[in-house]
Amino acid sequence: MNSQELPRFVNEVIRSHELATGLKPLVSHEEIIAYAQSQGFNINQNEWNSYFERDFAQLSDSTQQKILAAQTSHWSWAFRQTSAWRAMLMEGADTNHS
User: Fold this and answer.
1) For the chain, which terminal residue's Cβ has fewer other Cβ atoms within 10 angstroms, N or C?
2) pLDDT tens for residues 58-68?
3) Is the pTM value of this prediction over 0.90?
């Protein structure tokens, strides 16, 4: 495992519209990992879990609750899983509407 692969994947999603669009149908962390792997990024479950947990721990309680309450069926769910990707969402991209 290359410890730089996950940050590289996160950054490439920000840079590449095509890569970012591929996140829209994803509904679990396992699907995010599988998608990254399918795009040539060598990441695994443990690395993702550590990254997510570190990122999540830095958030306010209210932001954590919003992330936990996000509907996996909403197109923005995967984007809400990292701070870097949440910054890509336009204000008003709430999960109460499809």
Assistant:
1) C
2) 999 999 999 99
3) no
